[in-house]
Amino acid sequence: MTTAQTGRAAPPGAPAGGGTAARLLAGRAHQLNEIGLLAAIIVLYLALGSSAEGFLSVHNQLGMLRDAATIGIAAWGVTLVIIAGEIDISIGPAVAFSSVLVAKGSAEWGLGVAGAIALTLVLGLAWGAVAGWLRAVFDVPSFITTLGVWSILGGLGLYLTDALPVTLPESGVFELLGGDLLGVPTAAVIMLVLFGVFAYVARYTPYGRSVYAIGGNAGAARLSGIDLTRVRVALFATTGLLSAITGVLLAARLGSGSGGAAAGLEFDVIAAVVIGGTALAGGRGGMLGTLLGVVFITVIGNGLVLLGVDSFLQNVVRGVIIVAAVLINVIVARRGRATTS
Q: What residues form the membrane-spanning segments (predicted)?
C-alpha cells in the first residue's frame, strides 16, 4: 500500500510509496545527505575562518544570519512545493515587488505602515493562490504559471518605481523589522520561528502528509481522497505570502523598496532546497536539509565576498561549488542505499 492509502506520512527524505523497506532506505539516504552537508559546512567554516579576514567576527556572523533569512523564509515554502512535485520560480520578483508595495503604500499611498504591510501580505497570498489555482484547475505546469508571475511582478515593480528605489518613512516598526531583537537580526528570528512551524506542519499534520503523498503519486493521492486542488492552491499561496514577508523585511533592512532588489533570489532558494536533499521529482525532502542548504549557500556567498573574488566570477565559482555539493550528496546517498540493501 502507498503512503496515501495508509494515511501515514513518509518520513522526510522518503518517497510517498514503495513499502516500508523503500521508505527506510530513502530515509537513511536523506540522513546521510544531511550529515554530508553538515560536514561540508564545517569544512567551509574552517577554511574561510583561516583564510578570509573577519569571517568569524560577530558582526559578519550576524550579517550572514540576515542574508540567510532572505533565502530561508521563502525556502520553507518552496520545499513543500518541490516535495509536491511542483516548482516556483517567481520568488525573486515577488520579493522585489513586495518591497515596492510596502514602500509605496507607507510613503506615497497614505496607507500607513500597518496598512502597507497588510496590503503587501494579502496581495502576496493572492498572487500565489492564483498561480496555484491555474496549476490545479487548468493543469498548467507550475513552471509556466510561476514564470508568468515572475514576469508580471518583475515588470510591475520596475514600472511603479521607474527602476528607482522608494524610500521608507521613518517608523519604529521598520526599524525593528530591519534591525535586531535581543541582539539577533529580527529577520533571522522570524526565519527560525517559521522554520519550526513548517517543520511541524510537514512532519506531523494531515496537510504535510498530503504534500508528500501528492509528490510521490498524485493519482494515488487523489484516489485516497486528498483534494489536490486545495493542496496545490495552498502551496503556492504560501510561497506568495512568504515572498511578501521577505520583501517587507528586505525593504526594512535596506530602508527602501526597489523593483530591482532580490535579483536571482529564486535560484538561491531552489539551490538551497535541492542541496538539502529535496528531490525535484517530488515525494522526498525535509526542512532540516533545507536549513542546512540555506546555511551552505549563505556561507559560500559571504566567503566569496570576503576573499575578494571578482563579482563577475562569484556566480561562476558558486555555481561550480553548488553542482559539486549536489553530486557529492547524490553519491553519498547512493552508497548509503547500496550499504543498507
A: 35-56, 68-89, 109-130, 142-161, 181-202, 233-254, 260-281, 288-309, 315-333
